[in-house]
Amino acid sequence: MFVIRLPDGTLRVPHSVLADGGADGTGPEPREGRIIADAYVEIGPGDPDYDRLLRESLTEDELEDRRRRWREEDADLLRRFEEWKSDAQGMPDVPGEPGAQGKPDGPVENGD
Questions:
Q1: pTM value surpassing 0.70
Q2: How far is CA 64 from CA 17, 29, 44, 67, in A?
Q3: Which end of the chain is flanked by fewer CB atoms within 10 Å, N or C?
């Protein structure tokens, strides 16, 4: 989840960023269990965390560009993996490799 900078300067912040804390007294105790939903909170310049979060924020357009780039890179990586997998399925077993059906290379210990 990302901090999103809206056109009016408001930040849309993942709730977990603001609710993070712990035993050191910097915030509420962490909750146990799993997060089952993503929740955002909008904060403005008057919020004490605004300046810190503004530095790491992305506009909605920047976030969409990043997601598009990830999809494109994922598609290329998947294509290359599928090519490798199809090439590897047609290759004969290499002796000495795990799962190989041939005889191992080098001397074989007989346990004597």
A1: no
A2: 21, 33, 22, 5
A3: C
